[in-house]
Specification:
Layout: H1 9-22, E1 26-27, E2 39-43, E3 48-54, H2 64-81, E4 88-95, H3 98-106, H4 109-115, E5 117-122, E6 128-131, E7 139-140
Length: 141
């Protein structure tokens, strides 16, 4: 069930879950989520985990700019705090707004590479763009 606004966190999370399932990953049930990350998935074949933190886009105008910045920084802190698996892939997912794209691209490439951190942007048509740790721009996936 989708929320009223396509850019709500639950909608972004649902689209990411659908994508990761298509890649052969099994979403870990809520009861086994000890890491606190929004999406935790396992692939038996590759023996890898995906850990993805998800954020939405604020709706309220007065605090929108501060809220966007806070959510971006919070997502980084939350995913970094949970980087414990050697065989894990890590990412943060946002609705596809220019603000989040610019912020992701402003993060130094060396930081993304060392953390092996991926960024995902989801648009209102449920299309996903990804910025891999070594990439210099987002690509459709």
């Amino acid at each position: 069930m989708y929320e009223k606004y396509w850019y709500d966190e639950k909608n972004v999370e649902k689209i990411m879950i659908d994508w990761i399932k298509l890649k052969g990953f099994k979403i870990m049930p809520e009861t086994y989520k000890r890491s606190g990350v929004d999406i935790e998935a396992w692939n038996n074949k590759s023996r890898r985990y995906w850990f993805i933190e998800v954020k939405g886009y604020p709706r309220k105008k007065p605090s929108m700019n501060a809220q966007k910045q806070e959510w971006f920084v919070a997502s980084l802190g939350q995913i970094i705090k949970r980087m414990r698996q050697k065989n894990g892939k890590y990412g943060v997912a946002f609705p596809d707004f220019e603000f989040y794209e610019k912020k992701a691209l402003e993060l130094p490439k060396i930081v993304r590479e060392r953390l092996k951190l991926n960024f995902f942007l989801i648009n209102k048509n449920k299309e996903i763009r990804q910025l891999t740790p070594k990439a210099s721009k987002f690509k459709n996936i």
